[in-house]
Amino acid sequence: MTGHAVSDFAIAWRNDFFKAQTGTFVPFTVTIDRSGLTAANALMYVRAARRDGGTSQGRDVAVRYPFDVIFPVTLNAPAGQPVRITRGFAVAPGDYDVYVALRERPADPMNSDRRLKRAVLKQPLTVPDFWTGTLATSTVMLADRIFDMLAGWHSKNRLDSQVLRTLDEHARGLMDVCGVASEFDTRRSRRLRRVCCD
User: Fold this and answer.
1) Which of these, 94, 85, 93, lies nearest to 121 by C-alpha position?
2) 3-state SS assignment for residue 161
3) Scanning 24, 99, 158, 174, which has its CA 20 to 30 A from the CA of 48?
4) In this predicted structure, what is the pLDDT of residue 167?
5) What residues contact residue 65 under an 8 Å CB cut-off, 6+ apart?
């Protein structure tokens, strides 16, 4: 993205880092003040570009970025709360510039008279390397609840004991973490949980 983009509203960014099978997983949340929006839906474009010039490109080949995706999003939020949009991507360790562009979508595509609001955010990001063989920790998460995704699965699927043991060995750590607390939301009492994945 080149040039200077004028934003109609502010976008706040927050991210975490987790070890992934390939590279590092970066879940992120963008926060928007709902009062600055006029539509219920939008398109969100997210691009991660390496700062060291490691983007794949050629004379006759389109530029390829480590992450480059458009998401349709809903701009809903409880009364008095900002809009929170959560997504994620996995990239190799290194220094990046992450660009987030969000543009409202009209309820009626044929009605082009109303001006649609838009905003752009450029977020510098240094992605850590968790595959160095040295001690490293991912983001510490504060959660309200943690659910075992396999709970109740065994009783519904009658398999022999050997299959169940194999399934358990390969599915350890399949947890759904709910109510993750951000640094901006610590008013309610929460318990610190540690999730260990073998």
Assistant:
1) 85
2) helix
3) 174
4) 47
5) 47, 48, 49, 55
Query: Both tokens of residue 177?
Result: 């973490």
Rounded to whole angstroms, what are the CA distances from 168 to 18, 26, 154, 156, 172?
22, 27, 10, 15, 6
The domains of the chain are located at 11-127, 142-192
Separation between Cα atoms, residue 32 and residue 79, nearest integer Å:
13
At 26, is the secondary structure helix, strand, or coil?
strand
3-state secondary structure of 22: coil
> What's the confidence (pLDDT) of residue 179?
52
Query: 11-127 sits in which CATH class?
Result: mainly beta
pTM of the model: 0.69
Token digits for 70? 């458009």
Q: Which DSSP string corresponds to 16-33? A: --EE-SSSEEEEEEEEE-
Element (H, E) at 163: helix 161-171
Distance of CA 60 to the CA centre of its chain: 32
SS (H, E, C) 91-158: ECCEEEEEEEEEEEECCCCCCCCCCCCEEEEEEEEEECCCCCCCCCCCCCCEECEEEECCCCHHHHCC
